[in-house]
Structures are given as structure tokens and as C-alpha cells.
Amino acid sequence: KNIVKMVKDKRTRGTGVDNHWMLQKCQELIKSFNPVTHSIDTHCLEALGDVHAPNAKPESLFVQQVVYGCFKETKILKCFIEDFYIDNSARVLRSDITLYTVLAYIAIFRVDELSFDKFKDICLSQEPSQVNTIVT
Hints:
Blueprint: H1 2-8, H2 19-32, H3 40-48, H4 58-72, H5 74-88, H6 97-114, H7 116-124, H8 128-135
Helix pairs in contact: 1-4, 2-4, 2-6, 3-4, 4-6, 5-6, 6-7
């Protein structure tokens, strides 16, 4: 709950919470995960360290939760992303699929917890051409 409070706190916009880093790290962890060699827990632990440690970057817990959520909700997200690409094939790059998956997860499963303003801040941390299609 503390990470949600910090991520949600308007005072941290542009100072305390690095939205761009969070989305980049989520994408990196999702792309680099290999279930043959690691569990998702081990993969996140190696990449983020102990997210519950006192000196851990607060955003790391949120990243871990989003990565877990993207794998847990794969079926729903896959359906959404497939339809999204069918509807927007001329406007989006297939190489951005992980970004859209992460944004879709946050929008579908976490926006009530974070607030729409925070979701907007997260989207604004990315290239406008990449996120415009998914938020409109």
C-alpha cells in the first residue's frame, strides 16, 4: 500500500517517482523473462533486488507488481492487445507491444488504485506518438 500512496502522491510528480524508469523496467523484465531458466520471482529479485528492503527504490515494488500482473493476466491482456492491434494496425508499431501490454494492465487492473491522474502522468512519461493511440 505504501508504494501506491507514493506513486499516487501528486507531490512526487517529476521529482520522487520516475514514471519513465518504471515503464522501461517493466518492459525490460517482461521481455527478458525466460521461464525455462528462472521463476518470475527469481527473475524480479535478480533485476530489482529485495523490493522490501529499507534501501530499495520505492518504485521497484510497483514494477514487480506490474510484471507479476502482466504474467498473471496474460489471457485478458492478449485479447485486448490483439484487438488493439487489429483496430490500430496502421498507427502503432508491433515492436511496442510490451509497452502497450504494460499500459493496458495498469489501465485495466490498477487505475482505480492509482487514480486516473497518476495513469496520465505515467503515459506522459512516454513518447506521445506511442501512447496517444492507446489512451484515445
